[in-house]
């Protein structure tokens, strides 16, 4: 019987799971709506029901599930199999692995950006590279690290918090308690903030038309789409965003000197328009160091299935495959 | 016959080498004065002569040298065994491994901070820890990384440039071509700069006495020693230095979440006075993230022999020991 792995992508409003083969193919996929606000009991039950459904389908598909992997939007303890702290789930100290004990399958969990990076390295845009960094540009900035071919997670699995490195000492306050964190300057939230600030500075900007005259309609597209049409204010916003993103990317070039840095999350939907600008910013600064090998900057490629495939990839790696 | 490894610590004015056992004991040590300014030919010959002397002594000591490791103050290519770029040696593209081919021994090289970190992890202050970061606080800031128990060097061995991550976007210009690099704010050179600036602000400071009235006498001790005596200006300098050092240390806590961060280089001679202040700075900021495990901050312990022992440790690791 063919071996497979279950990958579960946990979110605050839905839990997505899939049965994934060795080569990253999803045999079966299922989504369960949930509401993390209802508390840990309901949430854990929803997760277990989703997995029971997947296991039932694995039988029909004549595949043998070897382990379950989870991508968690928060801080986990990889050794204990607990979710220690997850703002978006409104939860702390969730004993996930313990709760799933009676399934009699190995359960592994990691941060969602970590598993997404692993998925990209095994099956996506970073396939074949030894040192890979993923930056997910969303509400914050998540980070994932593949170093010397293996997922690097740090003590208790709590490393790779690449959004929480200060790039501006005494800069903007961050939810983590520090000031000037990278994610305060280069997340999708930062982009929205720059967009709104500039719109208030220039009421003539095309961005007002794009937002139908209401600043509440501003989203991640507003500045980029108007910049493409030549709007000066929009270009100012995009250039400002690229500068901060570029500085963070250059930092990670120098710290890790990876072969490739992937950009994921909402902002990465800008594709080559974004990549070309970040690459040009970094190249013009010689990647920060003389004679160092080029770092490829690319978009993550697994998109919507990244969470499922990445979580399954975690289970594969942990099982030694 | 007992196995041993040669470790060579390369500097611009002297080359230090030693025969090192498995357990990090130096059996024999030798130093050769050189002058990198005389060029590559003389320099390479001096290195070879030092090694021939060491090999001769290994015979008398009845130990069998298995490999040679080098710590290089600059950018190397670990795969090719070349020194690509080393400002302090006034050299580029030095084919070191190729030149030593006729010794018929495996030759390995890495950046000096990398090998020092490896030495500390195998035989020094970080013994027994899985994830270790070394920051050497000297003219610049060197970085070394032990991740999941192994030396991490990045593509071509050109990673771990921990001094060249921007902590102040648009900050002070750095020799690397970027602005606001960590080493511009927390190296020994930065400490000297802060000291001199503050002395010019306050002609009454005790630091003037300590420097015998001549600002050219300022060194790494000036501010620290006068701060211990209660001088306000000196305390201002030390606090400013600790703040920037602390911000960089917190960044590396969040990026790597190691078990321990070691401080080496001249500034680390301040010992527990320095460590207590940096630890307090970081602890008051909750190490940047809720619920994360503590990171120990300590001084490197191998001191003067760190280069030799570390370079030998590199040879051991590369040979699979």
Report on the structure:
In chain A, strand 6 and strand 7 form a beta hairpin. In chain A, the strands form three sheets. A five-stranded mixed β-sheet of chain A has the order 3-2-1-4-8. In chain A, strands 11-10-9-12-13 form a five-stranded mixed β-sheet, sandwiched between helices. A three-stranded antiparallel β-sheet of chain A has the order 5-6-7. Chain A has two domains: 2-124 and 304-318, Nucleotidyltransferase, domain 5; 132-301, Nucleotidyltransferase, domain 5 (2-Layer Sandwich). Chain A starts with a strand and ends with a helix. Chain A has helices at 40-60, 96-99, 112-123, 183-186, 188-201, 206-210, 220-228, 232-256, 272-283, 306-318; strands at 2-10, 14-20, 26-33, 63-72, 75-77, 82-86, 91-94, 107-111, 132-137, 141-147, 150-151, 260-264, 296-299. Chain A is built from ten helices and 13 strands. In chain A, helix 3 (112-123) packs across helix 10 (306-318), helix 7 (220-228) crosses helix 8 and helix 8 crosses helix 9. Chain A is α/β, with parallel strands linked by helices. Chains A and B meet through helix 8 of A and helix 8 of B.
Residue windows where pLDDT falls under 50 for at least 5 positions of chain A: none
Please indicate the count of domains of chain A.
2
Oligomer: homodimer
Strand ordering within the main sheet of chain A:
3-2-1-4-8
Question: Keywords for this structure?
Answer:
globular; five-stranded mixed sheet; Nucleotidyltransferase, domain 5; homodimer; alpha/beta
In brief, what are we looking at here?
By secondary structure, chain A is α/β, with parallel strands linked by helices. Chain A is built from 10 helices and 13 strands.
């Amino acid at each position: 019987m063919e071996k497979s792995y279950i990958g579960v992508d946990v979110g605050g409003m839905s839990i997505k799971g899939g049965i994934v083969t060795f080569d990253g193919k999803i045999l079966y996929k299922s989504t369960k709506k949930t509401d993390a606000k209802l508390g840990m009991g309901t949430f854990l039950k929803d997760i277990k029901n989703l997995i029971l459904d997947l296991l039932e389908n694995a039988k029909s598909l004549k595949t043998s599930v070897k382990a379950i992997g989870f991508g968690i939007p928060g801080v986990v303890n990889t050794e204990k199999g607990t979710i220690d702290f997850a703002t978006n789930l409104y939860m702390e100290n969730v004993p996930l692995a313990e709760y799933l004990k009676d399934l009699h399958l190995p359960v592994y969990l990691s941060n969602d950006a970590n598993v997404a990076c692993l998925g990209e390295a095994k099956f996506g845009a970073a396939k074949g590279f030894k040192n890979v960094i993923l930056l997910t540009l969303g509400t914050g900035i998540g980070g994932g690290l593949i170093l010397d071919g293996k997922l690097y997670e740090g003590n208790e699995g709590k490393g790779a918090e690449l959004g929480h490195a200060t790039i501006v000492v005494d800069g903007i306050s961050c939810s983590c308690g520090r000031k000037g964190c990278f994610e305060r300057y280069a997340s999708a939230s930062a982009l929205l903030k720059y967009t709104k600030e500039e719109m208030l500075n220039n009421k003539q900007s095309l961005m007002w038309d794009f937002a139908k005259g209401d600043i509440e309609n501003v989203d991640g597209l507003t500045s980029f789409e108007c910049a493409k049409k030549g709007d000066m204010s929009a270009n100012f916003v995009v250039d400002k965003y690229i500068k901060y993103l570029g500085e963070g990317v250059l930092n990670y070039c120098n710290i890790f000197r990876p072969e490739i840095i992937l950009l994921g999350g909402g902002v990465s939907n800008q594709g080559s328009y974004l990549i070309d600008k970040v690459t040009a910013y970094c190249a013009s600064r010689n990647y920060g160091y003389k004679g160092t090998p080029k770092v490829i900057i690319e978009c993550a490629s697994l998109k919507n299935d990244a969470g499922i495939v990445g979580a399954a990839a975690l289970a594969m790696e942990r099982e030694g495959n």
